[in-house]
């Protein structure tokens, strides 16, 4: 082809050139539209569609409607919690009887399996609620700790409790009570020495066969079932233990939200023993301490919102307690939040007197006994030094109470509930063995209720929750990056084409 004919071909004449440019423009427009759709799809599905669908799926699975996986686990925990008891053994009981400062030595752990289940379950459809009775069953495991036959010396849990409670509420009855206690227990001191299992589970003997009126006045409370921890053996004999009566027995009737219609209410306690608020703490009609705040402690609502506090109602303390957010952590490769229990204000308001000690819960209004609850070894409490005993060594690692919480699924990955019970000792002049005691907070024992979900469960949770979220996260950002880059390239090529066209036209 001659050169002049070559330049006459369609590609190089104005008509051909314009046609070629038009084809390019269309191609660039398609490129821009295509990559824009990729970007838009990634954004819409990744940020809106998938999260909404995933949240809907979680709400269907994580509620207490019959048949859901959450309901099955909630009704009966498929594995036991570990329950440990540590006791403060008194080493100078005779000196204490003369007014000396107590000395204690911690003995433990005594280890149990704790199985949690709920029974008498009734669904209330129109309230989206479920009512039930709570029950804890303990199985002693001497192979995991001490054998339970170790001798323990501690304040006599009947002698001192009865005397101090009467001193507070019915001081005019103290002379008669003192006579009855002397005949019933024949005490040589204000303390009792027995094996751990007898004191805490099997029970110590209470013989009510003596017909003396002072003895029968005391034993009448046993006969009426007014002494917590006392179990009748026959018409005149009883067994008393500190924890035995809590084994495989009713811990109260609850009504909680199922969280089907409103997922954020999942597990919230609505009533306890038929009441929608307590009547325990001062200003019972308006006081916030009497409100039933939080869940029953066995389930929490899933949430994407970061909560500074998780509330749980404790029947043992007659109030709700707050687990406060302390930071983020990684548990078996899962991102999680750490919450810690703190009995100091404003995390707790269950106090009943002007002499309330920050970092403790006064249990006298709750249990009718002169007891305090706190963290072990009075960790994070403001107990005055003159009321402390020798032998306490609080440390955060061993004595704090808290949980590791995965908020998206509402799963408690690990929990270490630690709680100490102490007696508020006071001298009682009418009771000879208590007449010289110093006013003292005497630690009795502390318990640890713990559960750590294993790596297999963590992997299962990862596959159900975090793997789909990770895939969605990768998909949306790849779509956005590819769509964004393609869109930018398309716009650039279109701009260059238009620039070249303007230059050619000139």
TrEMBL record:
<keyword id="KW-0325">Glycoprotein</keyword>
<keyword id="KW-0812">Transmembrane</keyword>
<dbReference type="GO" id="GO:0005886">
    <property type="term" value="C:plasma membrane"/>
</dbReference>
<keyword id="KW-0675">Receptor</keyword>
<feature type="transmembrane region" description="Helical">
    <location>
        <begin position="474"/>
        <end position="495"/>
    </location>
</feature>
<keyword id="KW-1133">Transmembrane helix</keyword>
<dbReference type="GO" id="GO:0005044">
    <property type="term" value="F:scavenger receptor activity"/>
</dbReference>
<keyword id="KW-1015">Disulfide bond</keyword>
<dbReference type="InterPro" id="IPR002159">
    <property type="entry name" value="CD36_fam"/>
</dbReference>
<comment type="similarity">
    <text>Belongs to the CD36 family.</text>
</comment>
<keyword id="KW-0716">Sensory transduction</keyword>
<keyword id="KW-0552">Olfaction</keyword>
<dbReference type="Pfam" id="PF01130">
    <property type="entry name" value="CD36"/>
</dbReference>
<keyword id="KW-0472">Membrane</keyword>
<dbReference type="GO" id="GO:0005737">
    <property type="term" value="C:cytoplasm"/>
</dbReference>
<feature type="transmembrane region" description="Helical">
    <location>
        <begin position="25"/>
        <end position="50"/>
    </location>
</feature>
<protein>
    <recommendedName>
        <fullName>Sensory neuron membrane protein 1</fullName>
    </recommendedName>
</protein>
<dbReference type="GO" id="GO:0007608">
    <property type="term" value="P:sensory perception of smell"/>
</dbReference>
<keyword id="KW-1003">Cell membrane</keyword>
């Amino acid at each position: 082809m001659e050169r002049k004919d070559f330049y006459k071909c369609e590609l190089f004449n104005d008509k051909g050139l314009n046609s070629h440019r038009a084809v390019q423009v269309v191609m660039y427009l398609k490129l821009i539209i295509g990559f824009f759709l990729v970007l838009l799809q990634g954004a819409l599905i990744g940020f809106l569609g998938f999260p909404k669908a995933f949240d809907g799926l979680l709400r269907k699975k994580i509620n207490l409607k019959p048949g859901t996986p959450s309901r099955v686990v909630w009704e009966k925990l498929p594995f036991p919690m570990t329950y440990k008891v540590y006791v403060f053994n008194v080493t100078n009981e005779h000196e204490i009887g003369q007014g000396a400062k107590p000395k204690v030595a911690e003995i433990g752990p005594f280890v149990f399996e704790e199985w949690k289940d709920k029974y008498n379950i009734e669904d209330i459809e129109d309230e989206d609620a479920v009512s039930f009775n709570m029950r804890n069953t303990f199985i002693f495991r001497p192979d995991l700790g001490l054998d339970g036959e170790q001798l323990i010396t501690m304040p006599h849990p009947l002698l001192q409790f009865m005397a101090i409670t009467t001193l507070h509420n019915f001081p005019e009855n103290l002379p008669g009570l003192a006579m009855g206690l002397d005949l019933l227990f024949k005490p040589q001191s204000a303390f009792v020495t027995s094996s751990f299992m007898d004191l805490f589970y099997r029970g110590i003997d209470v013989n009510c066969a003596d017909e003396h009126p002072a003895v029968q006045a005391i034993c009448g409370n046993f006969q009426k079932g007014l002494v917590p921890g006392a179990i009748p053996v026959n018409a005149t004999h009883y067994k008393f233990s500190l924890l035995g009566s809590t084994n495989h027995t009713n811990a109260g009737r609850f009504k909680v939200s199922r969280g089907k219609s409103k997922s954020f209410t999942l597990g919230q306690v609505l009533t306890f023993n038929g009441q929608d608020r307590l009547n325990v703490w001062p200003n019972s009609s308006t006081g916030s301490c009497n409100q039933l705040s939080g869940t029953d402690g066995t389930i929490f609502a899933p949430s994407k919102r970061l909560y500074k506090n998780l509330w749980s109602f404790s029947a043992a303390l007659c109030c709700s307690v707050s687990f406060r957010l302390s930071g983020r952590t990684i548990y078996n490769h899962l991102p999680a939040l750490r919450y810690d229990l703190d009995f100091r204000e404003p995390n707790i308001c269950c106090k009943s007197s002007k002499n309330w000690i920050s970092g403790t819960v006064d249990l006298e209004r709750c249990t009718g006994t002169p007891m305090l609850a706190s963290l072990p070894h009075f960790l994070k409490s403001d107990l005055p030094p003159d009321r402390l005993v020798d032998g306490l060594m609080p440390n955060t690692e061993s004595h704090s109470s808290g949980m590791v919480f995965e908020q998206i699924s509402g799963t408690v990955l690990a929990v270490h509930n630690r709680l100490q019970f102490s007696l508020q000792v006071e001298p009682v002049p009418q009771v000879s063995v208590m007449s010289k005691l110093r006013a003292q907070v005497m630690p009795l024992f502390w318990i640890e209720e713990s559960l750590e979900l294993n790596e297999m469960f963590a992997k299962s949770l990862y596959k159900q929750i975090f793997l789909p979220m990770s895939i969605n996260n990768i998909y949306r950002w790849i779509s956005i990056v590819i769509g964004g880059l393609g869109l930018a390239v398309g716009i650039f090529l279109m701009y260059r084409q238009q620039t070249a066209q303007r230059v050619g036209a000139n």
